Amino acid sequence: MANPGRLGELLLPGADLLIEKVDDDTSRKLRYSASAVLTDNSHIGLNTQQTNTLARYLLKKSLVPTLEKSEIVSEEFHVGKNRFDFLMQENDQKFLLEVKSVTLSSNGISMFPDAITERGTRHLNELSQLNESGIKPTVLFISQGSGDDLFMPDYHTDLVFSQTLLSLKDYLSIIPIEIKWKSNLELSDRVKLLEIPWRFLDTRMADTGAYILVMHISETQAISIGSIGTVQIGPGYYLYVGSGMNGLSARVTRHLRKKKRLHWHVDFLRQIAGTVKAYPIRTPHNIETPLVVALEKIFAPSIPGFGASDSSQATHLFFSSSDPYLSKSFQLLLSSFRFSRPHFHEV
């Protein structure tokens, strides 16, 4: 599958996939590729190598809002050591266009990226420095969601990319669109321009919020956990809820590190965990308690008092026998907190 993203909210057990047979590439080890996943409302393309094909079709048919009068001059255009997707021309002025595929969508919002993209951040910075022709360099985000009306950078997943996009919005033309596939899997000519709630994003770029830490324990062990004492930890996945209102990234980075002075309850559990994954939720509001309440509706509470010394909740630790990342209920919970819609005055 030609997609470097995580796609966790899409590739869940039982998901319906479209499989494409590839016969003309003898260098391939596998004869089939996953080309799309079918959701309740949409057909989401998974092959990012086809993104430029989509863009070319839309541009040549003048279906991209604000680019109806623009023409493709060249593809895979090089400027020094940098390569951009399209060199465009409108009247006698040329400009560069970079295309990004958006697969992350929920609550009427399309978001990009779904994984940290240093390359994407570099492209934004490089494009912003090439604004010489009078027409701003352009970034075209193509979303395959259904019924969305807003686009936002995914500041929960990649804060640096999101902050960069926000800081360069006056130097780049940013065009987020939503496309739609017909029931026969042909591309519709319906293209919708999505709105970017810039004022809302201004309030979301601070590195504050809450997080869910998922730790995998492979075998039963007895460990001493600070004031709690010695407890027996069975194999499985443990979900811990914490907050970082004075520096979310630093708090999460500390949890991911094994070598440190053991201080919080979670530090002791981290010492025996194999894989550890963090899911931050960036917000200026303290959502630690609502996040705990939401998790306890899905997963079993574990170790009374764990991480709850200054909390009204019985525990901040929960247990799952299987990887919660592959659980639809966990993905829906994460989306419900991450895909927060702005109020009218914040748009």
Task: Give the key terms.
single chain, 347 residues, alpha+beta, Trna Endonuclease, Chain: A, domain 1, 2 domains, six-stranded mixed β-sheet, five-stranded antiparallel β-sheet, 8 helices, 19 strands, 20% helix, 34% strand, elongated
What does this structure look like?
The chain is an alpha+beta fold. The protein has two domains: 43-202, Trna Endonuclease, Chain: A, domain 1; 209-338, no CATH class. The chain has eight helices and 19 strands. It has helices spanning 51-60, 118-128, 159-167, 198-202, 248-256, 265-270, 288-295, 328-338; strands at 16-21, 32-38, 43-45, 71-79, 82-90, 93-102, 104-106, 109-112, 138-143, 150-153, 173-181, 187-193, 209-217, 221-225, 229-233, 236-243, 276-282, 300-301, 317-320. The chain has a six-stranded mixed beta sheet, sandwiched between helices. The chain has a five-stranded antiparallel beta sheet with strand order 17-13-16-19-18, sandwiched between helices. Helix 2 (118-128) runs parallel beside helix 3 (159-167). It is elongated and about 75 Å long. The model has no long low-confidence stretch (mean pLDDT 88).
Total strands: the figure is: 19
What is the highest CATH level, the class of the largest domain?
Answer: Alpha Beta
Elements, N to C (H/E): EEEHEEEEEHEEHEEHEEEEHHEHEEH
Low-confidence stretches: none
CATH topology name of the largest domain, in short, is: Trna Endonuclease, Chain: A, domain 1
- What is the average of the pLDDT values? 88
Portion of residues in beta strands equals 25-35%
Number of helices: 8
Shape field: elongated
The spatial strand order of the largest sheet comes to 4-5-6-9-11-12
